[in-house]
Amino acid sequence: MKRKITLKQIAKELDVSISTVSKALRNSVEISEDTKQKVQAFAKLYNYRPNNIALSLKNRKTNTIGIIIPEIVHHFFSKVIRGVELVANQRGYNVIVGLSNESFAKEVINMEMLANGSIDGFIISLSKETLRQQDYHHFNETINQGMPIVMFDRVVNEIQCDKVIVDDFEGAKNAVDKLVNNGCNNVALITTKDYVSVGRLRTQGYIESLKNHNLELKSELILKLDDNIDYEVNLDALEKEIQQLFKANKTIDGIFAVNELYALTAMRVASRLGFNVPNDIQVVGFTDGVLSKHSTPSLSTVSQHAQLMGEKAATLLIDRLENDDDYENYQTQIIASELIERESTK
Amino acid sequence: MKRKITLKQIAKELDVSISTVSKALRNSVEISEDTKQKVQAFAKLYNYRPNNIALSLKNRKTNTIGIIIPEIVHHFFSKVIRGVELVANQRGYNVIVGLSNESFAKEVINMEMLANGSIDGFIISLSKETLRQQDYHHFNETINQGMPIVMFDRVVNEIQCDKVIVDDFEGAKNAVDKLVNNGCNNVALITTKDYVSVGRLRTQGYIESLKNHNLELKSELILKLDDNIDYEVNLDALEKEIQQLFKANKTIDGIFAVNELYALTAMRVASRLGFNVPNDIQVVGFTDGVLSKHSTPSLSTVSQHAQLMGEKAATLLIDRLENDDDYENYQTQIIASELIERESTK
DNA sequence: TTGTACGCGTTATCAA
DNA sequence: TTGATAACGCGTACAA
């Protein structure tokens, strides 16, 4: 169990100085062919690789980026990570993952741990708790220390930084447009409380679409769920809420839901109540999940292009890291969502 | 945009030496109360935090662990990561994620990048290509350099290291037992080619169960799919294969599939062919996925307790990192799988 | 052509 | 009680 070999050890072994070894390995013209060959052969034999940590310290650059997400067991976020990894690796960076678990405290701690030299910059999607408390001091501190941040999906206007978002408003509007154009006159909305910005924007898209079609906005058709409840483990509660919606509004002929779980559950409840999807009720969700594709009927949804978001975020961050000349010309890139039509709409 | 503050800067500012500052911040008894207070107040004001990279270099310890997985957009692997993160964070470690994308070359490159000082140890699940080529030199090199590895799920006997696996054999046997006990006499198996060890073990569990029940092993009931094809994007091909299985064997009354996608697709094909699940055909899958729970009918599956696997793997690794006294007493921890009965079985 | 010295930020040891 | 020095591993400016 030998440790990794270092320049110093090679130097000692070959009886030359450390810097000679260093130069020889970088093929410097300063060094004679003889010595170069000798050193390079030896290094190859012992499989020498420079120590990343030493390089990071010396260069004040880690070539590592940190991504902080609220939850990793989630198709959307894991796809984003895949996109980030893809670009990061291509450009010679590693990726450290931190999970906030939707908690403000964990988000702060995670960022502080990584900000102390471990990484060159952050990619982050805010936790629900952070959005609720509206406490963004840790972002400003990080940015003030010269460490760039790229926010994605769950972003916030109060912070000046690069951002990548999906056009939640447009996406939702298109989805509802589709339902209305397909003949739905009473489109219900299943959404979340408003502090998660994406929920708010999708709700606004719904409202806008109704307005454009001169349809009355009926508040009783809007079901606002408390997304602090983990409905994934508490499906019964979700079904009950949705069932009430249907029972109180017999004329519902379309559902737009801001995520996959709500949409799927709505389909299930609807068919349990004797409705046929899509003939009686058409349903559109908002997601990049796996459930949509494999459900019966399969679910029409608004795709967010999660992997692309990750790629863009990583590109923005690395570009900024590698061009120190551009000052605070922050951009917000908007990824166009896409309505994927499946069996739950006509 | 000020850089992070360092000991040196504090020292200069307060006109004391660097080592005095260092000691004062660690509350050394060598330093007078006066100086300590002064230094600590100043450090707090400027929000001083030691630079992780410098500490890593000095201590030859990064407090970071690397996890290499074949694919992150996968419920099983993201749950494992969650488990790893949980334990790692509790014990003061960060987690770097590397994706092999099922490629041998990417696995090797990723490991080499991280092994040069970036991390203290690896948690890894082997890529399919690595398993197929049976080239494990990179693991041995890493271990010989004194960097511990913990393998999980897709492991390999040839390498001496800690391992965490699920009891694939037992889990499969129990699943098939269940089907047989529920009255199935012609249980088909949908599996993969044998180089992925977990597929092989699950196949053996199927065979064992049939043997125990004195049921004939019919090779025509075993469908071995080439899992290099991404059936997720090529669902039609998968459906066709499974449809052939059903058409060639009209007596099939049970299906055991080694993953979620195969199981779900089998259910869909079966009902399309006019069979009722579970009355005509019962189905059990093998997975921790989300699809099982939300499909109609919901799918009975063998759960692998992915998050627990991650937690155990991280614990094994960190224990080994922190106890240098235990020499090569490698353990293999087996996580008991669990048959979760849902609507696809009686 | 080779070697020395320095610095990245920190801590530990030893000297003052 | 404080400070100087060395070391972790590397690369480079400069001296020999």
TrEMBL record, chains A, B:
Pfam families: LacI, Peripla_BP_3
Alphabetical keyword list: DNA-binding, Transcription, Transcription regulation
Name listed for the protein in its UniProt record: LacI family transcriptional regulator
Keyword Transcription regulation: yes
Molecular function GO labels: DNA-binding transcription factor activity; transcription cis-regulatory region binding
SUPFAM superfamilies reported in the protein's UniProt record: lambda repressor-like DNA-binding domains, Periplasmic binding protein-like I
Acetylation keyword on record: no
Limits of the HTH cro/C1-type domain: 2-53
PANTHER family xref list: HTH-TYPE TRANSCRIPTIONAL REGULATOR GALS (PTHR30146:SF109), LACI-RELATED TRANSCRIPTIONAL REPRESSOR (PTHR30146)
Source organism (scientific name): Winogradskyella wandonensis
Residues in HTH lacI-type domain copies: 5-59
